[in-house]
Specification:
mainly alpha, Arc Repressor Mutant, subunit A, 2 domains
Amino acid sequence: MPGHDEEYEEFARARTPVLLRSAWLLCGDAHLAEDLVQETLAKVYVRWHAAFRSPIENPVAYAQTTLTRTFLSSRRRRSSTERPTGTLPERPVDDGTDRAATRLALLAALDGLAPKDRTVLVLRYLEDLSVEETADRMGCSPGAVRSRSLRALDRIRPLLGSSFSADTERHPS
């Protein structure tokens, strides 16, 4: 299916930067984010070629959902004692603005959350998805997303400090 491969390659090239950004926000490590995107694109590729039987209605949403669920699945498999320590975290690429310190603080705070809490905050507030879209991507109910959002915000506020608290209180879930 030569035309199918070209369509997939075009899709993968176009979506990789967005998927990589989401993956980096979810896992907080550039190398793990690249691995997560690679695994996601491999899963999408398999489904893409099976699409002649059952086409993917929304490939963008399918890829994002696959990324989210692959991240959550990898966190469940990972042992709680398998957390690397003793090294400085990677710094995000500085884009020349003064937001680098804010990004680092946010990333450190997100790293202190459970995987599902981190995922709900990334999808709701950083990816700007609705409660329903977040629920669909996480495979849970909208009510679960709302309650997890509130609990996750309560957990992250002390980690971020007072400068962030005012911002999150103005934008409740």
